[in-house]
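Posted in: Protein Modeling Q&A

I'm a second-year student putting together a small comparison for a lab meeting, and my supervisor asked me to include a predicted structure for Dihydrolipoamide acetyltransferase component of pyruvate dehydrogenase complex. I've never done this before, so apologies if this is the wrong subforum. The sequence is pasted below exactly as I got it from our records. If anyone can share the structure token output, I'd also love a short note on what stands out.
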Amino acid sequence: MIPHVTHFDKTDITDLEAFRKQQNAEAEKRKLDVKFTPVVFIMKAVARCA
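Accepted answer (user: helix_wrangler)
Welcome! Here is the predicted structure, written out as tokens:
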């Protein structure tokens, strides 16, 4: 049997979600072909920790 671990944490991303939606609205207004997802912000946070 191969050992494995599963770990979950809860976090309040209310402010992040509001900011993300604001940025998507601004990008759409400027007709930019970008879409911000939560993964973008998570990747940036992880990269800064390294």
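A couple of things worth pointing out for your meeting: The two ends are 32 Å apart (CA to CA). The CA atoms of residues 16 and 45 lie 12 Å apart.
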